[in-house]
Amino acid sequence: MSVNNSNQEAVKTREQLKKENSKEESPRKGRIRIRLIPIWLRIIIVALLIFLSVTAGAAVGYGVIGGGEVKDIFTKSTWMHIVELVEKE
């Protein structure tokens, strides 16, 4: 019984310490977060990565799997042909 009582007292003490520490050190109080990469730069990086992955996917899909030439994915006639194939019923 005495071990159980001392354990409960220790738990109460830990909880009280956590409450006291949280009151003293609030994260919003006088603390400014400086980001290594600004949000606008993150958006540009994500857009660039999406563009690169779409380009790489088209190159692999059309050039390697489809048997065409990889440089043909940059021509308008190739994309018009692909759109015609998709819209064809």
UniProtKB/TrEMBL annotation:
Residues 11-28 have a biased composition (Basic and acidic residues). Residues 1-10 have a biased composition (Polar residues). It comes from the Bacteria. Signal peptide: none annotated. Pfam families: EpuA. Residues 1-29 are annotated as: Disordered. Keywords: Membrane, Transmembrane, Transmembrane helix. The chain crosses the membrane at residues 39-65. This is Hydroxymyristoyl-ACP dehydratase.
